[in-house]
């Protein structure tokens, strides 16, 4: 196989650093292992962020997500770890990661974590009639 999992997150320059805009990335096939049973856990991840100077490159993000496939991780821990890594690589103004895990033992889990640059001021939303 020519493509392998990788923890390296590649970034590129924000094409419009003077404008606040939101990037939304859906990752519908995230997998990791239950640390208690070793059985696979499946989740849909939604990453939303307002970039500052850097954006995350999608192929590197895909290969990064692949690194969790064979790792045991609690839902809460893995969601926070992923956000921490992507935020460290991109230094966004704002970032939110939502992890919607499939049912396990009759229970669905959703974990939402956020990162905010304390120096960033969110723009006032525009209300249209």
From TrEMBL:
GO terms for cellular component: cytoplasm. Pathway: tRNA modification; tRNA-queuosine biosynthesis. Catalyzes the NADPH-dependent reduction of 7-cyano-7-deazaguanine (preQ0) to 7-aminomethyl-7-deazaguanine (preQ1). The keyword Oxidoreductase applies. This is NADPH-dependent 7-cyano-7-deazaguanine reductase. The active site is at residues 34, 41. Coiled coil: none annotated. It is found in: Cytoplasm. The keyword NADP applies. Belongs to the GTP cyclohydrolase I family. QueF type 1 subfamily. Gene3D superfamilies: 3.30.1130.10. GO terms for molecular function: preQ1 synthase activity. It is an enzyme of class 1 (oxidoreductase). Substrate binds at residues 56-58, 75-76. It catalyses: 7-aminomethyl-7-carbaguanine + 2 NADP(+) = 7-cyano-7-carbaguanine + 2 NADPH + 3 H(+). Keywords: Cytoplasm, NADP, Oxidoreductase, Queuosine biosynthesis. One of its GO terms (biological process) is tRNA queuosine(34) biosynthetic process. InterPro entries: GTP-CH-I_C/QueF (IPR043133), NADPH_dep_7-cyano-7-deazaG_red (IPR050084), QueF (IPR029500), QueF_type1 (IPR016856). Its EC number is 1.7.1.13.
């Amino acid at each position: 196989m020519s493509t392998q999992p990788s923890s390296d997150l590649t970034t590129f320059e924000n094409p419009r650093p003077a404008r606040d805009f939101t990037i939304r990335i859906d990752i519908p096939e995230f997998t990791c292992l239950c640390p208690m049973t070793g059985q696979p856990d499946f989740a849909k991840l939604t990453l939303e962020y307002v970039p500052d100077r850097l954006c995350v490159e999608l192929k590197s993000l895909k290969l990064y997500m692949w690194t969790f496939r064979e790792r045991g991780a609690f839902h809460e821990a893995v969601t926070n770890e992923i956000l921490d890594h992507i935020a460290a690589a991109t230094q966004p103004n704002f970032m939110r990661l939502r992890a919607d895990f499939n049912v396990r033992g009759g229970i669905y889990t959703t974990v939402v974590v956020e990162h905010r640059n304390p120096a960033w001021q969110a723009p006032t939303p525009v209300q249209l009639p």
